[in-house]
Every structure is written in C-alpha cells, then in structure tokens.
C-alpha cells in the first residue's frame, strides 16, 4: 500500500487538481470502514474530479480499483495484522534495519549484518520482557477491561488498551435494539481518528463523527464491532469497551485475550537457537536443546507407522503426566526427586489411559510385557537426555 501511495504523484501529478485529488483519494482509501463505503466514495471522487477524462491516469486507477480487495484497508480489516498499521508495515521494516543494511551493502556483508540486526532485536525483546516484569503502568480509568489487561499484557500492548479506554469518553450510545433471543445491536457515535504522518500518531478530525454498530451477545458477553479493530489489531476497540460497560459486563470474555500479547506466557522461540540469537548462555536453553536432540530420533521412527506413532505419543503423554505430578508435589513442598523415583507412582502412571492408548485395554500389574515398552522407551529417552 505504501508503494502504491508513493506512485500517486508520478501517475496523477500532471492533473491540474492533483493536490485535491490526492487528499480525496487518500480519505476514501484510509477512512472507509466497509467495502460499500469505499466503492461509493471512490465513484464520487471519479465523478467530482472528472478523472475519466485523463485517459492514461484513469487507466492506472482502474487497475488499482480492480485489485482493491488486495490492498484497501476496508477489505482487509478482518485479517489479523499482529498490531501493525497498514501505513506502518514498510516503514517498520525499514527502521528495523536502519544502521545495519544500506543500499550499497554487498552480498557478502548482508548475512553478518542481518544477523547483527536480528540479535539486536532479540536483545531489545529480552530487555522489554524484563521491564514488563519490574514495572506496572498505572490505570487511567475504572474500566474492568483496563484492570484485566494491566495484569495480563506486556507494557507496549497495555498502552494500546489504555488509548482505547481513554477514547471511550468520546463514544456516545445512540440506540440499542434486541435483534434475537441473545443478541442486542448497539449503535454508538464516535470521533473519526486518522493517522497523521507528520505527528506520527492518531489524531481526531475536528467536527467529524461517525456511527458504529456493535452486536452484543448476552450469552457469551462477546461483542463485534464493525470498525474491526479487534480482528485487525487484537486490541478491543473503544466501542466494544463502551458497550460492555453499558451492559454491565464485569469479566472480560476470554475471546478478547490474545495469548501473543501476554507477559505471563514465555515465547517459545526464545528457547530455539538460531544464527542471530545465541541463547545457549542460559541453562534452560541448554536443557531444551538436549531434550530436542533426544526426542528427534523417536519422532522420526514414530512417523513411520500408526502403531509406532501411538507408542511415541503414549510415551510423551506419560512424561507429561509425570511432570504434572512432579509440579503438583513441588507445589505442596514435597521432595520432587523422591516423587519421580517412586516405584508406586510409576505404576500408577503406567496404568493411566492416555490419548496414545486409545483402543488398548488398561494395563494390568500382572501383564506388564506391553506396559513396559513405553516405559523402556522413556528410560532410553531419559538416558539420552541425561
Ligand atoms: Zn469499534
């Protein structure tokens, strides 16, 4: 999209009303909420500025219009962009490599510099994680949503939640009507917020307001807004926050909690050694590597047949059960090592039904020929790990 907008002056610059045409097209492209709104706005700009008369330029615009489902925000708002703005994607990647890659960077220099940039990003992430654990940002209001995400989200994402909470004061409920046994349709009025390239932040357009429709489900307490902010960015919009407040919803539905923004979930990629990030300095990562090395041969052989797959899955599920048991005992202050080596516990686990043992009768103590097979496998596995 950024590349297309850059071409506007080259393709349309010869037209007499170019500055006004550019503003009108940008307004339709960035501020249309739905495909219908975009198509009507586009047709209006074409009509107002008589764009059809500029044959070559109009031909280029028709080409863009025909591919509108690929790049116009109103068509891609339902797609999750992991927090990236449509206008920021390219800029973000550019600034990411600033200082590491230049247009005259040679091919042999590319790989080490790329690794350096990625290492720097990994270290920044680590520092941000540490900060999230040490500091908690204060609340700006009394919304249940804000309290919930203060506890759950990383600081950067909590700031985005707070921005939506602060803008709730501009949201005014207009109507509410019951549309089915469980659904209520709310309409709310709100300011129009647009991204300012110069201020590098969202600003409200003076005197401009628009109506948003929020469909609230009374059974699940989940609401959907036609601004599609949650679907696109993973952050609840101010309209949904307002409707949940109006409907007296105190507990934020779990559907709004996006795991990738949570500070209490360790990102698994931090355990994987890659060229640009050498986490081998930590004992945790060393252990993780040893486990992966030990598991790989079993995974390869297990994939050869359904029978072998069952065996591997059963073995892994037994390990998980033993780890759960170990965690539970640790929580009560018992000796973990003692629990893991206890014969009685081991037999209890072997007799447990696991996903891998579907279609197989539960193991009995007397007939342990087959029950010992996964156990032997486990022993081999652990020997390899240790
Ligand atoms: Zn909304």
From TrEMBL:
It is found in: Nucleus. The keyword Zinc applies. It holds the Pfam family SWIM. Its main location: nucleus. Coiled coil: none annotated. Keywords: Metal-binding, Nucleus, Zinc, Zinc-finger. InterPro entries: FHY3/FAR1, Znf_PMZ, Znf_SWIM. Residues 212-248 form the SWIM-type domain. Belongs to the FHY3/FAR1 family. Putative transcription activator involved in regulating light control of development. This is Protein FAR1-RELATED SEQUENCE. The gene is LOC130470758.
């Amino acid at each position: 999209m950024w590349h297309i907008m850059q071409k506007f002056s080259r393709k349309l610059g010869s037209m007499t009303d170019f500055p006004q045409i550019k503003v009108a097209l940008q307004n339709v492209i960035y501020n249309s909420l739905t495909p219908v709104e975009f198509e009507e706005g586009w047709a209006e700009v074409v009509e107002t500025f008589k764009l059809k008369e500029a044959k070559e330029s109009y031909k280029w615009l028709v080409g863009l219009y025909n591919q509108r489902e690929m790049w116009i925000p109103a068509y891609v708002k339902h797609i999750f962009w992991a927090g990236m703005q449509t206008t920021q994607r390219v800029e973000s990647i550019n600034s990411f490599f600033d200082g590491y890659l230049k247009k005259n960077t040679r091919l042999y220099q590319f790989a080490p510099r790329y690794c350096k940039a990625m290492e720097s990003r990994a270290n920044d992430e680590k520092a941000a994680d540490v900060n999230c654990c040490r500091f908690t940002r204060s609340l700006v209001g009394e919304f249940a949503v804000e309290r919930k995400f203060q506890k759950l989200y990383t600081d950067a994402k909590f700031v985005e939640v707070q921005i939506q909470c602060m803008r709730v004061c501009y949201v005014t409920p207009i109507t509410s009507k019951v549309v089915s046994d469980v659904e209520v349709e709310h309409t709310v009025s709100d300011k129009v917020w647009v991204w300012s390239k110069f201020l590098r932040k969202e600003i409200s357009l003076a005197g401009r307001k628009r109506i948003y429709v929020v469909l609230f489900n009374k059974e699940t307490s989940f609401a959907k807004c036609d601004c599609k902010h949650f679907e696109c960015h993973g952050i609840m919009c101010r309209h949904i926050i307002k409707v949940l407040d109006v409907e007296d919803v105190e507990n934020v539905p779990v559907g709004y909690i996006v795991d990738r923004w949570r500070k209490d979930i360790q990102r698994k990629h931090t355990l994987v050694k890659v060229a640009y990030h050498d986490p081998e300095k930590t004992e945790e990562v060393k252990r993780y590597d040893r486990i992966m090395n030990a598991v790989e041969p079993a995974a390869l052989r297990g994939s050869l047949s359904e029978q072998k797959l069952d065996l591997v899955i059963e073995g892994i599920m037994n390990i998980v059960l033993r780890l759960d048991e170990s965690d539970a005992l640790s929580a009560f202050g018992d000796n973990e090592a003692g629990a893991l080596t206890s014969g009685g516990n081991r037999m209890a686990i072997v007799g447990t039904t696991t996903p891998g043992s579907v279609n197989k009768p539960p193991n009995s103590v007397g007939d342990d020929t087959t029950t010992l097979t996964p156990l032997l496998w486990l022993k081999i596995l652990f020997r390899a790990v240790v």
